[in-house]
Specification:
The protein is mainly α. The protein has two domains: about 80 residues, no CATH class; about 90 residues. Helices cover about 80% and strands about 0% of the residues. It contains eight helices and no strands. The longest helix has about 50 residues. It starts with a helix and ends with a helix.
């Protein structure tokens, strides 16, 4: 077999493995099983933080085509990939993105990975809290605008010609209720904005101490 042919074969195997992984599916077809670079597949699974049990799926797929995965090559490649997946900066990135992770890291890397993940997770939660409070304030302000519109309509109705006394009394009663509700919403907005200021301070502090 020529060097060029060997290179082309390896390149094809790598692309097939990468394509299957990018599609998020462990299934391998006949050609992928026959051309598989098991070390590369293991490496890609390791980089993605996949469980070692994933090779069992490959084994089932390839058994249909009388192909047996090279388990030693797969495991060696996966261990290499985990060395990249389990670095602290990746743990922080996953936590900061609000993503979960599987317990796949080697003992020597697990502690630092989890510590970084938890730091990123704190920042994610702080940011989520700020965003949620922003959204709540916006909703309450929209509610206040609606109440103000209702009050304006009732005030116009109150001074309309031909209004009976009992109708006027009812509108005044409804205006009083509206005002109480508006006061309550305004107080709620003040409290929310106070909370938001503290939440934003917390978020800024966590952002500044990012060591990853």
């Amino acid at each position: 077999m020529t060097e060029s042919h060997t290179y082309n074969r390896l390149f094809t195997a790598a692309m097939l493995a990468l394509l299957a992984l990018l599609q998020g599916c462990a299934t391998l077809d006949k050609d992928e099983c026959k051309l598989a670079d098991w070390r590369l597949i293991g490496f890609q699974d390791g980089v993605a933080g996949k469980s070692a049990a994933r090779v069992g799926e490959y084994r089932e797929d390839c058994a249909k085509h009388a192909v047996v995965p090279d388990l030693d090559a797969y495991r060696a490649g996966r261990e290499e990939g985990l060395q990249q997946y389990c670095i602290a900066s990746n743990g922080y990135r996953l936590g900061n993105a609000g993503r979960s992770f599987a317990a796949v890291c080697p003992t020597a890397l697990e502690a630092d990975f989890r510590e970084a993940y938890n730091a990123g997770r704190k920042l994610y939660l702080a940011r989520s809290t700020v965003n949620k409070t922003h959204s709540t304030i916006k909703q309450r302000k929209q509610t206040l605008t609606t109440l103000e519109d209702d009050r304006a309509q009732k005030l116009s109705a109150l001074i309309a010609d031909g209004l009976k006394a009992d109708q006027r009394v009812m509108i005044i009663y409804e205006l009083n209720e509206l005002q109480q509700e508006m006061d309550s919403v305004e107080d709620e907005i003040v409290d929310l904005e106070h909370d938001l200021a503290k939440q934003q301070t917390r978020l800024d502090q966590l952002s500044r101490i990012n060591a990853y």
